[in-house]
Structure formats: C-alpha cells, structure tokens
C-alpha cells in the first residue's frame, strides 16, 4: 500500500478532522506535510479536513533561523498555516530530553480542543526508541515503544508513518521533488539516538534485512502484554485510584512486589508521567510507602512530587516555602504567591468578607493592620465550646495534608490570627 492511501485509510478510522503537524523541516516531517496537503485536496472524501503546522525553534543550532524560513516557505507552498514557537531548552538533564520536553510543552499550548497532533515518526524511529528503552532497562511499558495512536504530555498523538521506513519516505520525497533540511547534529554520535542510527543499526539491517519489522513486532508484543496486565489489574487499580492524583494504600502492603510496582506504574501512567526506573520505584516503595506512620515522606519524580498522608499517596507539583511570607493587605485584591491565586475583600457596614478560591470567611472590621501569612504553629481556640488546642491537631481533624497547611492563607489582625480562610475561625479567649 502506498503512503497516501494508507494515511487516508488511517484518518477515516479516526473521528478527528483537525490536525496539527509537528514540522521540523527534515525529510520525515516534510513528507508528512506533503501527504496531508494532498489529502486536504481530496474534497469529496475529506471535505472538512483542517490542517495546521507548528515549527519549534530550539535555538540550539546556528542554522535554526534558516530552518524557520524553510518551513515557512514550505507551508506557503502548500497553503498550510504555520505556527513558529521559540523555546528555551533546559540542560539540567540531557539536551535531547530537554529539547523533547520543551518541544511538546510548547506544542501543547497551541493544540486546539478536538485537534490531534501528528508526528512523522517512522519504522526506523520505532527501532531506535525500542533500543533506547532497552538501554535504560525499561519494562513492558517502555519496550512497547511508540503506538500509532497514543497520548503524550496530555495530548492525543497520531503517528501515521510508523508502518513505513526512511527509504520509502525518501523515495516519495524524490518523486515529489521535495526539498528538506538536514540537522547537522544528526551526525554527532555523542547523542545516544545518533549513535544507534549511525553506528549500530546499519550493521544489523545489513545482516538482517527485515530487522526493523521484527523489532516492531516485539514492541507490539510488549505493548499488548502491558495492556493485558492493566486489564487483569483494572479492578484492583480502581480501588486504589478513585481520584486521579491520589493513590490509596489500603491492602497495598500485602501485595507481592511485582503487583505493587505494576499498580504504581499504572497510577503514574494515568497521570501521564515518565516511567521511573526499577531503582526509583523501589526507593519510592521503601522510603515513602513503608516510611514510619508519623513521617511525612516525599519523592521527587521529574517535575512532580509524590507525598504520603493518612495512608494515601498524592501527586503534586513542587511547592515553595511560604512559612516566612508576610503580605500586607492594603487593597481589595491581593495576589498570593506560588500560584495560589488572589485573595479579595468585600466590605459591608460591620464586616469584612474574605474570598479565596471557593472559600470565604466573614470577620468583624478592625483598625489594626491586616496581613496574610502561611505558617503558624501555636495554639488556637477554633470553636466556642472547645478548649485552646494545638493548630496541628486541628489540621489533622480537618484532614488537611501537611504540605497544604502552609499554603492556606491565614488572616492576621495585627499579630493575632483570626482565620484560616475556608477552614476555621479563631475565637477570642474570654
């Protein structure tokens, strides 16, 4: 089957009719753009096909600006709208990983609802991805490599060229007289993918002509086995994961290590996180799940933090320390730090009404200076019929996780705590 008819068949099997093409300007994505331009012209079959393209300027090559112009000229030729996005690549880990994350995060900001991201990954890419997963010691999830349709970084992705190799794409490009760019870094074997592509895989393909197809079958077997495991564990997983970012630990400690790690991987996959290594999973289980009951352990996983509280795991972002933060309330709206939103105040004849997120509290007016703080460790009286109690006990009774306690705005009149907005008021001791 030829490229055009195969992609047309794939699109007819999807309900989507809006597509955003990831365009680097190289051979693979140039072929992909050309194919979608041809499909869009077949009005009787796909009358409402919407096609856009996006090019990410990583700023890593001295030729990056010329690549932008090439992609613009290409899209002008095919009359396809082009988005150009410039990103900063984090070099905390590898440049490859940093560029990949920056690229997909930037694309995510432009992807419309009901639109599918289309990438030009092909059969040779699948082999490289499988080998890189093998090098990392990945399990079935990683060795399943890429699927024709999946979700990545919360985006639906279509890879319609996975069934074709690079030679087939090059033949199409030559037949259509297409021009493409070549990234000079593709020859740098310091990068793992390039090392495989340039040094290792050509030898394997020369000896075994159908090696890529064999790898693809193995990757598919791994994917199907992982799906089977997920199906068999679906009932148990539903008991542990009733809220997406929370994992209940009831009965968890009684499971075999294999079942424990499988359920945790399902939870992380549900939250679309990169799979941790076996060593990291073991560390998570030993240092967080099996930590002492009164401990408040946490585990950093890329840009997320896994925390434990009252026999549950929670997935959060890293939080800033706000315990020493004091904000003076001098206007009706106060911007709170660390993405906590705004605190607003409305005034009536006798009271001040404070609003934060979905919470509110009504307090009497005061001539004292009003401030907002986030840390308090003394005793308070939060109910008229209860004695003065340690604030830690109150938070525990309210079921507020430890890390959230220092993120709830505390209203002070002068140096006196008056309320934790949305949770309790403080009563004067008579």
List the topology elements.
Elements: H1 3-12, E1 18-22, H2 27-41, E2 50-57, H3 64-78, E3 82-86, H4 95-110, E4 115-118, H5 123-135, H6 140-143, E5 149-152, E6 155-158, H7 166-175, H8 192-207, H9 211-232, H10 234-240, E7 246-248, H11 257-270, H12 278-289, E8 298-301, E9 304-309, E10 312-316, E11 326-328, E12 333-335, E13 342-347, E14 351-356, E15 359-364, E16 370-373, E17 379-380, E18 389-390, H13 391-398, H14 402-405, E19 410-413, E20 416-420, E21 424-425
Tell me briefly what this model is.
By secondary structure, the protein is of the alpha+beta class. The protein contains 14 helices and 21 strands. Strands 3-2-1-4-6-5 form a six-stranded mixed sheet, sandwiched between helices.
Description of the structure:
The chain has 430 residues and is of the alpha+beta class. 39% of the residues lie in helices and 21% in strands. It contains 14 helices and 21 strands. It has helices at 3-12, 27-41, 64-78, 95-110, 123-135, 140-143, 166-175, 192-207, 211-232, 234-240, 257-270, 278-289, 391-398, 402-405, and strands at 18-22, 50-57, 82-86, 115-118, 149-152, 155-158, 246-248, 298-301, 304-309, 312-316, 326-328, 333-335, 342-347, 351-356, 359-364, 370-373, 379-380, 389-390, 410-413, 416-420, 424-425. The protein has a six-stranded mixed beta sheet with strand order 3-2-1-4-6-5, sandwiched between helices. Strands 11-16-19-20-21 form a five-stranded antiparallel beta sheet, with no helix packed on it. It has a four-stranded antiparallel beta sheet with strand order 7-10-9-8, covered by helices on one side. Strand 1 (18-22), helix 2 (27-41) and strand 2 form a beta-alpha-beta unit. Helix 1 crosses helix 2 (27-41), helix 5 (123-135) crosses helix 8 and helix 5 (123-135) crosses helix 9.
